[in-house]
Amino acid sequence: MTETAALPILYSFRRCPYAIRARLALASAAVAVEIREVALACKPPELLAASARGTVPVLVPPSLAMPVQPLAESLEIMRWGLSHHDPQDWLRQGDAAAQAAMAELLTVCDGPFKHHLDRFNYASRYGAAASHTEIESKAVAAAEREAHRQAALEVLRGWNARLRAAAPAAGADGWLLGSRPALADWALMPFVRQFRLADVAAFDAAGDLALLRAWLQRLEQGPELAAVLSEPWGPRQPWLSPSWLYHLALPDEWAEARCHGEYRRSSRGLSLEQVGFIHASYAPQLAGTHRRFYGDVPGVLLLTIDPGRLAAAGVAVRAEAAPGSGELFPHLYGPLPLSAVLAVEPWRPVPVLQEVAA
Ligand SMILES: N[C@@H](CCC(=O)N[C@@H](CS)C(=O)NCC(=O)O)C(=O)O
């Protein structure tokens, strides 16, 4: 069942260009949302329940809003946010010609441009035909990558020409639809930025992209992008799912576990054998656990544990009261198998529910 909450939930990934454009629109619309940063290699079940496709961004509207269906397309999320409040008229309400031009730009960006961008930027993922020798394969892959770069450049030249035509009077200060930015500018920017970052020197030297370069620079250097790449819009630590269990580990002890294939520490300074179980925390308990036991340890690691995989490995989990308090904590009765650990990352302070002020 899809989770619903008082605030809209945005499953996001800080560096994903689709998620960036969604956050840009929600921030511009000053819509309060709860941001849930997702590690794409370790997607929380709540995201998959909201959208089986498992891509980000996904927006789960609050239970009282209509429609209540999650939105799993970045452009839908942008429009949803701006339909509530669009102070800079990104949607160009009432301007059918601008809207049609925008739709065309977005179709090209998310279709052919993205296609070529991916095959240029992540060429190794798309690989050359296997029938070649290794040397031939490398040459074919390089040629294919260059062909995709050229095809993407062709699209960029079209956008550069559009900037010239759309705001001849404004010169280098023009935007895709005239003298002020619209949804299309913000929606395309993260992808043009990605293209530039794949080969900064070549992009910066391209004589026929001067207007587009200036456009990108203005969009990148404004406060909007910086805002959505930092807290609270762009948290660096993945969201802590209530479906998972967590354990704080000392780096040496985790390294030892990796050698042995299982982890046998219960808590700081105590083994599984001494205690009889491994201490763990539910998401909301983690900050307190860290404060009480690990506040002075540099480099402490956060383990994310899947209770389903624990069960499959025959490790029982019991919720039991901590001594001297009625608070129930998850206790693992058996060694923690590495296969049940979904993620290991440096501990960072747990972001509390993030309400982005309107
Ligand atoms: N059409 C979708 C595409 C979203 C998308 O592909 N996002 C990427 C991250 S940038 C993703 O979630 N990929 C899934 C994965 O890597 O497992 C949109 O506009 O939101």
How many separate structural domains? 3
DSSP helical segment count? 14
Structural class based on helices, strands and sheet pairing: alpha+beta
Strand content: 5-15%
- Average pLDDT: 91
Rounded to the nearest angstrom, the radius of gyration is 24 Å
What does this structure look like?
By secondary structure, the chain is α+β, with helices and mostly antiparallel strands. The protein has 3 domains: 9-84, Glutaredoxin (3-Layer(aba) Sandwich), CATH 3.40.30; 96-204; 245-346, ADP-ribosylation fold (Alpha-Beta Barrel). It has 14 helices and 13 strands. The strands form 5 sheets. It has a 3-stranded mixed sheet, covered by helices on one side. Strand 6 and strand 7 (270-271) form a beta hairpin. The longest helix has 33 residues, at 134-166. The protein is elongated and about 75 Å long. The model is unreliable at 353-358 (pLDDT under 50). Glutathione binds next to loops.
Put the structure in a nutshell.
With 358 residues, the chain is of the alpha+beta class. The protein folds into three domains: 9-84, 3-Layer(aba) Sandwich (Glutaredoxin); 96-204; 245-346, Protein of unknown function DUF952 (ADP-ribosylation fold), CATH 3.20.170.20.
